[in-house]
Description:
By secondary structure, the protein is mostly helical. About 55% of the residues lie in helices and about 0% in strands. It contains seven helices and no strands. It has helices at about 5-10, 20-30, 40-50, 55-65, 75-80, 85-95, 110-115. About 20% of the residues are buried.
Amino acid sequence: METDDFRACLISMGYDLGEAEFARIMSLVDPNGSGAVTFQSFVDFMTRETGDTDTSEQVIASFRILAADKPYILVDELRRELPPDQAEYCIARMPPYKGPDGVPGSLDYTAFSTALYGESDL
């Protein structure tokens, strides 16, 4: 995720970002100064920020960001945004999305996330 996209994401989640605070956060999620925030860095940051309250809703929110607010995610998006082993893990375990607005090959990240936390029988 590009730096500006990450900033917009944080603002949409209610962060009050001045330059110093954003620089502090960027030093955590992009310690090498590459100008990009990886999915894993984003997840790690959100996990730290939310303490021990990691829930399926938080994972769903992360996937929703990767899916550009769509209720499903595509294999190409997973492969582009996640490390190869994590992408393949998700692809192998995510069920097909069955909503009316799905496209061929779309995957259901909501069902996957709730199954990860024992909140469904997937």
